[in-house]
Design brief:
globular; 5 strands; Rossmann fold; alpha/beta; 5-stranded parallel β-sheet; 370 residues; single chain
């Protein structure tokens, strides 16, 4: 199956760069994607024959209770970002927000295999095929094992739902938590980034590979609400299986997007007519949507409100996301500053006091019941 790794790596690079979404690829896209990538991610193609690394054993006992104790927040975390295309631009935007805050900074490595579940990410070390994009640094497992990184942010693939896939998430998210516990037992922090499903869920078109999912008939907003207990349950189950000094915490991005969608529907976000204005396609956010989710990440990782921070930020290479032609030939105008204020407020209100973020409740914030 040596061809399999090369094929997925090429397709992954194309997907992460938006090449496969270009109008000129409309004819070739099904031919390119169907043979390997989607079968692989659906679990129908086997991984390499290399043995799977065993999950390390947990180190210490964790505090009991579903509502976690307040977290301790470093001012210069060293972060490993592990995920797929829903993680794209997230590290750079969070870095920019940190550097816009007096006294904060961040160092990071980014392991990104577009579309890949945590299972495939974990097995990457044994395969040794380097399917993650090499310009971002190193394999996540190897980075954690250096002991130099105190924070891990991970996201699992979507669509996700049903007993088998939920159990898989618990298994592999647990392996990563245990790995962090082994190499940073005193201060290692692990975050599970809550994703979302495609915007066509619950419509006649539907989402790819989503037919058997129990919530596949729900609309995008309804599904965010219905899926929230599933994502929270994964975090709860992981912490129960792998007790340690620092429990896994959640970055409630999907929940926050739902709240922002509600505000847009009420006409409270200037310049936005509907939640699809946050998206580039049916699953990937545009720069403004990414900025909002980056505010959620920032609030959770640093325990601070993003309110008042600039939106005129740049990547590590000094590139902006607004008012210029991006690599995929798209161009996005910067959001109205009044809309940015609403987004920052909603991001903070979602994170502060959420039972799984570890961020203490701020005065005036409220959380949905679990």
């Amino acid at each position: 199956m040596a061809w399999n790794g090369r094929w997925v790596r090429v397709l992954g690079l194309a997907a992460s760069r938006g090449i496969l979404h270009h109008p000129a690829m409309s004819t070739l896209r099904p031919v390119l994607l169907f043979p390997a990538l989607w079968l692989l991610l659906a679990g129908l193609l086997p991984a390499q024959d290399a043995a799977k690394p065993a999950a390390p054993k947990p180190q210490q006992k964790a505090a009991k209770g579903r509502t976690q104790k307040a977290a301790e927040f470093p001012t210069h975390p060293r972060v490993v970002w592990l995920g797929h295309s829903l993680m794209t631009d997230m590290p750079d935007m969070v870095l920019a927000l940190a550097r816009a805050t007096k006294g904060l900074d961040m160092t990071f490595k980014d392991h990104n295999i577009p579309g890949a579940p945590l299972r495939w990410q974990w097995e990457e070390e044994a395969r040794g095929t380097k399917q993650y994009e090499p310009q971002f640094g190193m394999n996540a497992n190897k980075a954690i094992k250096t002991g130099e990184y105190d924070t891990l942010v991970m996201v699992d693939s979507v669509p996700r739902g049903g007993k088998q896939l939920v159990e898989e998430s618990i298994d592999y998210a647990g392996r990563y938590l245990a790995l962090v516990q082994q190499y940073r037992p005193e201060d290692g922090r692990t975050f599970f980034y809550e994703p979302w499903h495609c915007t066509e869920t619950g419509t006649p078109k539907g989402c790819p590979w989503d037919k058997g999912n129990p919530n596949a008939k729900l609309t995008w907003r309804e599904r965010l609400e219905a899926d929230a207990p599933m994502w929270a349950g994964i975090v709860d189950a992981v912490n129960k299986a792998h007790p340690g000094r620092v429990p896994m915490r959640m970055i409630p991005a999907g929940t926050a997007l739902g709240r922002l969608a509600d505000a847009i529907a009420k006409g409270e976000v200037p310049g936005f007519k509907g939640f699809r204005d946050l998206f580039q396609d049916d699953i990937h956010l545009n720069p403004t949507g990414k900025y909002f989710v980056a505010c959620v990440h920032y609030a959770t990782i640093f325990g601070r409100s993003p309110e008042g921070l600039p939106h005129a930020i740049v990547s590590r290479w000094g590139r902006t996301w607004w008012g210029v032609e991006l690599w995929d030939k798209s161009r996005w105008e910067a959001p109205d500053p009044k809309a940015v204020k609403v987004m920052q407020r909603i991001a903070w209100e979602t994170v502060a006091g959420h039972p799984l973020t570890g961020v203490p409740a701020a005065k005036g914030t409220s959380q949905p019941k679990r």
